[in-house]
Amino acid sequence: MISSVMLWTLTGSFETRLEAAARAGFQSVELVDEYASWPDSRIAEVKKLCRSFGLGMDMLLATPDWDKRPVSMVDPAQRQNFLDDVSTAIRCARELEISQILLLSGNAIAGRTYEEQFASVVEGASRAGDLAAEAGLILALEPLNSLVDRKGFFLNSCVEGLRLIRQVDHPHVRLLFDVYHEQVQAGNVIRTLTAASPWVTAFHVADNPGRHEPGSGEIDYSNVYKAMRQTGFKGHVAMEYFPAGEQVASLTKALNDFQAALDV
Fold it and tell me: What is the CATH number of the domain that holds 222?
């Protein structure tokens, strides 16, 4: 498995956050909206900077500011806006040498049935998958919990995420399994990740409650990491938590605990 960090959860400048990930020993980093305003010259600088730190980049979000703009996968009327964002993200991902693009469903729409909205996300994911296939990239659809962090979010569990990915049935559309979000929303993390493993392209990690370091809350991450290994997963596992202490020390411990669980 390949260790990674979602940079938005760290503090400091972009360069400071990259340095923190590198000093802690991580192999890769993930982006949310950092790339959206970068001109070509900045993209070249970032690639050079990552190489200087020995870091890869493995994922970026297709729809920056998705909760403020009409780019929802849930609403067919916003489909073209969503696909335009996916096309832009694909272009940026290729320039940054990033292989995976993160998709978010958007919020549920009042007055529409669950299955109507589910069908819209299926169609959007399928059409976006065709775009990704042309570029040789993978789309990672991530459920977010709607109980604590994202009230009103439509696709809010990996149980439903797995049902959706299987219905889309597209080789370039896969599931991003966020252990924190799944624990908050539904629990049964190990059972669900094991069942979903053939369709999982990446994992995100944080503990509950508080979304802090693995081991700070109720999730037994040693067992979760072992379950990931037992599925044969070889992809990226990204820390996406808020460090409660000094961030390099926190990330270093999180990475050491991850590696120790895999070495047992």
Answer: 3.20.20.150
